[in-house]
Amino acid sequence: MRILSLIAASLFLLGHTAMAQSPAPEGAQAYIISPDEGATVTSPVTVRFGLTGMGVAPAGIDKANTGHHHLLIDRAMPTGEDLEYSLPAEDGLRHFGGGQTEVTLDLPKGRHTLQILLGDHNHVPHVPPVASSLVTITVE
Predict the structure, then answer these.
(1) Domain boundaries, the chain
(2) What is the pLDDT of residues 6-25, one digit of tens each?
């Protein structure tokens, strides 16, 4: 029982320990190809991701100047210390660890915000963060 408790505590601490952040090359930028800022769309919505100054690589592949996309849906960009940790798998934060560059989403009617944040092989944002501008869309 004591060994199980030690393993559980170790896993908890591992998930809450800051990881070394990968450097981003100067000028690297993520962007949303579509939909356009201010677009009115119908659901399902296909979101296409773009990246300049870096390459796309699946999670787990530790290669300089690469990363994979994370899509923030109706949620604020992490700031400060939160950028030092692996991005959590939770509502409003979709991971594309396979190196995907688009997704089709079922979004309810209304106003929504979309933003891309690149993560390294460990899902940790780069330094400085490689992120898109915030895109606001309306689903009819």
Answers:
(1) 2-139
(2) 334 343 444 445 567 899 99
